[in-house]
Request: fold
Amino acid sequence: MQKTSLVKNIIYKILLNLFNIVIPLLIGTYVYRTLGAHSIGKVQITETIYNYFFIFAVFGVYQYGLREMSRIKHDPVKVNQFFSSMFIINIATSLISFLSYLLFSYVGYRGTAYFPILMMYSINLVCNIFYVEWVNEAIEKYDFITVKTIIIKIIYVVLLFRLVKTTNDYKEYAFLLILTTVLNYVVSFIYVKRKIKLDFSNITIKQHIKPLLIVVVFSNANVLYNQLDRFMLQYISDAAVSYYVMAQQMMGIINTLILSIIQVTIPRLSYLSGSKDEDSYLILLNNISKIYSAFLFPASIGLLVISNASVLIYGGAKFASSGPVLAVFSIYMISVGIESIQSNQIIYVKRKENVLVKLVFICGLLNLLLKVGLLQMKWLSPTTAIVTTTITNFLLLALENIFIRKSLKMNYSLFNFSKIKYLYFSLLFIPISFVIKMFFTRPTIYFFVTIMSCVVVYGAILLFTKDEVLTLIIIRLRRYFSKYSKT
Reply:
């Protein structure tokens, strides 16, 4: 694979996630203001319950399939046989999860306002059989993923404005979320089947079960982290869940865009690690980490300083309680970003996921105990929930880093000056925001003036210090426009 191919894939991934940012920003305000905290809270609680069963339906096939197919993608016979094995496993886990979900929903929520929405979400578990997007990522078909997702999102937006108009339309909103997922699954499956054939001549099931079980645990760490928060907040109120989820989604919009850099390099890193090209692996890993840090730290600190203004603009005054929650989520985003590099690009790529599972479980169990303690003492709130989750996630990050240095003995650090300097630069946003707030009190004006000021200051620092990440971006842009002008 050529370097230019990786750059092209990153561009497609960023374009896709930019679109995934624009759409929620355009319609998020409409959805939250139209449905309100209690109605949208019903959908989000239902989605939280569904996610627990979805974990077992997917059964780690996405992450495991992506890594393993990336290693064999140049062998068509092995690809067909591996895909067929994963497809059979996916059918079995989807059907078992579907039946278990129906039983749980009927026994636990029959006769409640959640039950009709739970039944709608059961459709996703059946259609999970066709969830093969991991194949497109493994063979690096990011152009198809981008175009497909954009078209389906446009359909979703059109239908949303036609069907969701009052606080009572939360069922219609849930239906559109499900419809979008189903369309994504089916279209991707049709596309993949044109390139990869089902070959049952050498099916291997047993050898994949153990690694899949391990992947299920570490790739679904949010069960003991964010998903746990959402589940336990339902005992406070529907509104408490909506305050938490709103802040989580706003952080997720930014985090998804930045994580594009990591997600798109996992197949390449897996391939290099599998081919024993350790030098190339470390060079790519360090370069990607440096670029990622240059975006992660300013995005996190920037989100921190505009958190209160953001929720007022996004959801209105009735969602003002989400401001402190979003502020903590901005710090949480730093831990998520660094942990994602350590777990996905190092520990998982090096096939040490068994160690990762133990670390995730230890910190997740601690998070569970902290939540139970908060609930018993009546201190549980959206803010305290994410505070304890942030603490345990930083602990997980620290334990992973110790393992990487002591056991893997890798010549790699996320905390050297070439990466951490971007955090120091970004801390200037805090005094800048205080000064701006002295002159601009209206949330909208404060929001835009703060963003523009921080971007200008951060860009000026990078230019003054002749930062290599900025230099690399400028060189790439010059080459692109030079090539474009000649055609």
